[in-house]
Amino acid sequence: MRYLPQTKKSRDNMLSAIGVTHVDALFTDVPAEALNHNQFNLPDHQGELAVERTMNQYANQNRPASAGRFFLGAGAYYHHIPATVDYIIQRSEFLTAYTPYQPEIAQGTLQVIFEYQTFIAQLTGQDIANASMYDGATSCAEAGLMAMRVTGRKKIMIGTPLHPHYRETLMAYLNNLPDADIEDHITSDTACVIIQSPDFLGVPHAYDDWRKRCDAVGALLVVVVTEIVSLGLLPAPAQADIVCGEAQSIGLALSYGGPHLGFFACREKYLRQMPGRLCGRTVDADGKPGFVLTLSTREQHIRREKATSNICTNQGLCALAFTVHMSLLGEDGFKTLARLNHEKACYLADALSGVKHVKLPNPHFFNEFVIEIPQKSDVVLDHLRRRDIIGGYAVSDHHILVTATEMTTDDDINMYARALSDILTEVSA
Amino acid sequence: MTQIDDTRGLDYHESLLWEKARSDTPGVDLPTPENKPLRTGQNARAEIGLPQISEPQAVRHFVRLSTKNYSIDHGFFPLGSCTMKHNPRLNEKMARLPGFAHLHPLQPMETTQGALALMCELQRWLGELTGLPGVCLTPAAGAHGELAGIMTIRAAHLHKGHHHKTVILVPDSAHGTNPATAAMCGYTIRTIPTRETGRVTLSAFKEALGDGYDVAGMMVTNPNTCGLFEKDIREISDLLHKAGGYFYGDGANFNALVGKIRPSDLGVDVMHINLHKTFSTPHGGGGPGSGPICCTPELAPYMPTPIVIKDQNTYRLEQAGERPTSCGQLKGFHGQFGMHVRALSYMMSHGKDGLKRVSEDAVIHANYILSQLQDDYHVPYAGPCMHECLLTDKIQKEKGVTTLDIAKTLIEYGMHPMTVYFPLVVQGAMLIEPTETESQAELDRFIHVMKMVAQDVTAGRTDTLHTYPVSAPRRRLDEVKAAKEPNLRWKVS
Amino acid sequence: MTVHFTKDHEWMKIEGDTAWIGITTYARHALGDLVYLELPETGRKVSKGEHFAVVESVKAASEIYTPVSGKIVEVNSTLSSNLDDLKEDIETGWIVKIKMSNPSEVANMMDKTAYDQYVSTLD
Fold first, then answer.
1. CA torsion sign, B185 to B275 to A253 to A103?
2. Chain-chain contact of B480 with C59 (C-beta, under 8 angstroms)
3. Which residues of A touch B265 (CB under 8 A)?
4. Chain B, 191-220: which have a CB under 8 Å from a chain A CB?
5. Does residue B69 belong to any structural domain of this protein?
6. Do residues B364 and B279 both lie within one domain?
7. Considering the domain A68-77+330-426, what is its CATH architecture?
8. What span, in angstroms and rounded, lies between the C-alpha atoms of B294 and B299?
9. Same domain for B173 and B212
């Protein structure tokens, strides 16, 4: 009960000030049969030590990426997080603040959001960005819905291999709406074309042709990026109308899938159709510069059923972690990080494609790529796991998506190549 | 004093990152790349225009910005329907254990048994506390949980062939997310008026329900956004169920019930739980949240996927397509796991005995405030209230002092304002949610300031009330300018 | 030329089969400081009661409904950047001109006196 300040005496004081003798006198509107349920099959309160013991037991049954020999990416990436990031995001003033509804006492959060919006707009080559969304998959679904609002059309084309979770999420959102659907071709009914780059199989794409194809039918071009570090090496998707995706790679731990950080940027002309929070610069009563949440007439608390989305939180603390990490990286650091990722992946590609029977179907990649093997992917991955190597993600029966980041060591890569060679010899195709 | 910038004492002027001189070296030391030919099939990216500063400059930047924020760790934060309670640091420590923090969502499940067991245990706690044993942890926030819940209801109706059920009933006092969510699911919204009584009355409900043929469900927050318990809720849910509709419970105000009242006993079929409210995961200046949903066994087949399943002694995530009636996948991966760790840590710390104290103390606190302020402020609906109380500026407005002035005066006195101008069913609403983690001294200080404001208004000392805050990092901001001339990012000037 | 008024606080000037539509002083005051006006496209067909424009303040968005059916033949696009002109002024404050398809819809609308009487009953 260490979190509850009231004593029996103070509680009795307050009850008597209210004019009742028992707390249940405040619950008289509750149906009697529902009040004071006492059959909860749950334990009583515990001290910190006991809770820590249990939590440690749970944690110790997992094999984290930090144990090394880790080659899994596919939409979530194990990167280094500078110590400063975690220190800043644990400051009370950021950690335990609310959405900045009272701007006079929330300028810290608001300036960070403004800086985050600027970072995202710069990285994506877009005019504006919102204050962040749940994750890449929901951000992609919101982009689809926004394209439908802008064009008044109901069909969405997926142009390059899209992360299967993103596709599923988009489909689930579209299923709610009459006639909305995903298609594999572009027509005059197409609201947008979604291009993931690098795509789910790791291949980077150029945008000029897609831009032309979209313009020919009046569709929007939506670019999805699941590995935001790639924007330090690949050209910006400036041709797009909307760029969205996942920014977990900068500043956020894998955390078994969340919280991560969805980002959403677009051209200024679509500002009023954007979902999510926006922070803008203005002045206060003394003329001093300051920031506020703005353009909220797009949002649910004002527009209700006519809002652009029901979303009302952003991933505030995650956007902070991103912003702190980006400020530490700077222009040079961000680009160096991207290049290091690519070079590690090149080393990994050479090491694995040097193994007998392993093929590399796609010559171009950023920090992950597909290997083709004669044996079953899941069998090989399971053998690797038994050797304490997390070898990648099975994208098909004979294809594994493997990933390297700056965390991957040359020793890890050499060990992977040796183990794969052994396993492919041991396991018959 | 010579004017250099706005910095005075501990109040720092802090420029944007882009306005600082560019450092030669960034705030990280990375290995030097070999700069071999690229295998991306594309040219390397040109100059992006990112700022560049050293680590000490970066630390100072963010620490200075942090000092411009108010937080629950500073003081009283009675933001109605937001449940700003103490955020225990134990939970932060637990979420950062390497066995949780560095776990990849797509790892082989043999290597994540502890995480899956933890999620399964959280599902069990939520199922017990709500009485709704079907639990899906994936929704990323409250509004996302609402989407999950309404999609669950929709999938159930469609599976039964009930295509005629196209309407969701929503009281006018509901959060905006309720109608926005129902609209995202393709439903038409029919509003139940509550303005007269602050509650959904049986007669208003019956009128909205009609013969119930087209009604797919109802979204009700209980206790509602006026801080009142919906006393006719059993009769209402019975009628709704008879008409073939489902009762969606908005979990925003679960802090009034937790450990004492199960939503299932009130007729709720499906609800979301805001882990960032009731179970204290930090709000973080606007997120991340986490909004698991809990539902009846009847609706469980339609919940989003994946859920965690226990087979014998092993745990696993549901496979794709394993539950074909599911309304689908609603986000990448399987939820805000970091928030699951924090919430379970909080629940275990409280236990069932502590959680009952949570709801009782939260309700006592709100009623204590109501009892002390009811002579000074207009109370639109008589108490007792639940975990939050609703006042308005009706009395003060006659002297030209509005809810906005009262809120900004609280800032001047070092407190965060209550929720203002919501719910929309009363004019000049002030919704006060003190939560259970305040001492009586904090409550008394708030009451004192509120009484002082009321007395100032009565005595005609209103001039300064319009000027507050003057001691905060900023005075009132020009929101009209912000909206009229949107300036949403730094640009090269 | 006559000017008609609606309970939704629109004014309408009729000339032949064309209606100039704007919002009244009462509406303008109720909306507070306006920050944005969303205008329709010329050529759009609208039915009586349908919204054709949205005005926004910082905290509210209000739809403007057409009291008559017809086709939007002209849009006062200068209003977007001159929101102060959006008022009860038949020369500069009109939002759209609609070529009416059913001029009989104008019957039963209030004149200035009746509208002022109506407004005085509101709080």
1. positive
2. no
3. 31, 33-34, 37
4. none
5. no
6. no
7. Alpha-Beta Complex (3.90)
8. 9
9. yes
Tell me how close the Cα of A54 comes to any Cα of chain C, in angstroms.
Answer: 48
Query: In terms of C-beta density within 10 A (0-12 exposed, 13-18 middle, 19 or more buried), how is residue A288 classed?
Result: middle
| Chain C residues 59-98 with CB within 8 Å of chain A | 59-61
Q: Nearest CB to A3: which of B47, B154, B437?
A: B437
Q: Are both B324 and B220 inside the same structural domain?
A: yes
CA-CA-CA-CA dihedral for B156, B157, B158, B159, to nearest 10: 50
Smallest Cβ distance to A303: which of C36, C58, C61?
C61
Which CATH number is correct for A84-323, 1.20.1070.10, 3.40.640.10, 2.60.120.560, 2.40.10.10?
A: 3.40.640.10
In a domain, B16, yes or no: no
Q: Which residues of A touch C53 (CB under 8 A)?
A: none
B455 touches A: beta carbon within 8 Å: no
| Residue pairs between chains B and C whose CB atoms are closer than 8 Å | 14
Residues of chain A neighbouring C58 (CB-CB closer than 8 A)? 294, 296-297
Q: Which of C31, C35, C83, C122 to mutate to test the interface with B (most CBs of B within 10 A)?
A: C35
**Which chain C residues are within 8 Å of A272, Cβ to Cβ?**
36, 38
Within a domain: B254 = yes
- The domains found in chain C, sorted by start residue, are 2-102 (2.40.50.100)
Enter the pTM of the model. 0.96
Domain range list for chain A? 68-77+330-426, 84-323
Cβ count within 10 A of residue A100: 27
Interface test with A, best of B7, B16, B66 (most A CBs within 10 A): B66
Last residue of a domain, one of B348, B381, B415: B348
Taking CA atoms, B217 is separated from A118, A218, B214, in Å, by 42, 38, 9
d(CA C24, CA C72): 20
Same structural domain, B241 and B342: yes
CB contact set of B472 (below 8 Å; sequence gap of 6+)? A104, A105, B411, B412
Regarding whether B341 and B397 lie in a shared domain, the answer is no
Which residues of chain C make contact with B421, given a CB cutoff of 8 A? 59
Residues within 8 A of A (CB atoms), C 24-43 only: 36, 38
pLDDT in tens, A182-209: 999 999 999 999 999 999 999 999 999 9
Q: Which of B348, B366, B400 is the last residue of a domain?
A: B348
Q: Please list the pLDDT of chain A residue by residue as tens digits (429 residues).
A: 899 999 999 999 999 999 999 999 999 999 999 999 999 999 999 999 999 999 999 999 999 999 999 999 999 999 999 999 999 999 999 999 999 999 999 999 999 999 999 999 999 999 999 999 999 999 999 999 999 999 999 999 999 999 999 999 999 999 999 999 999 999 999 999 999 999 999 999 999 999 999 999 999 999 999 999 999 999 999 999 999 999 999 999 999 999 999 999 999 999 999 999 999 999 999 999 999 999 998 888 888 888 888 888 889 999 999 999 999 999 999 999 999 999 999 999 999 999 999 999 999 999 999 999 999 999 999 999 999 999 999 999 999 999 999 999 999 999 999 999 999 999 876
Residue B411 C-alpha, separation from nearest chain A C-alpha, in angstroms: 8
The number of distinct structural domains making up chain B is 2
Which chain B residues are within 8 Å of A260, Cβ to Cβ?
Answer: 332-333
Q: Domain containing B382 — which CATH number?
A: 3.90.1150.10
Two tokens, residue A68: 């090394």
Token readout for B36 is 């071999």
Answer for the pair A147, A162: CB distance below 8 angstroms, yes or no: no
Is ipTM > 0.90 here?
Answer: yes
Mutation site, C41, C51, C55, C58, interface A, largest A CB count within 10 A: C58
Q: Are residues B288 and B395 in the same domain?
A: no
Q: Are residues B341 and B389 in the same domain?
A: no
With tokens 């009795």, the residue in question is A12
> What is the domain range of residue B441?
356-480
Which residues sit opposite B192 in a β-bridge?
A: B171
SS (H, E, C) A105-120: HEHHHHHHHHHHHHHH
β-bridge partners, B429: B392
Say yes or no for a CB contact (<8 Å) between A95 and B282: yes
Task: Check if the beta carbon of residue A322 is closer than 8 Å to that of residue A115.
Answer: no
Residues B306 and B380 in one domain: no
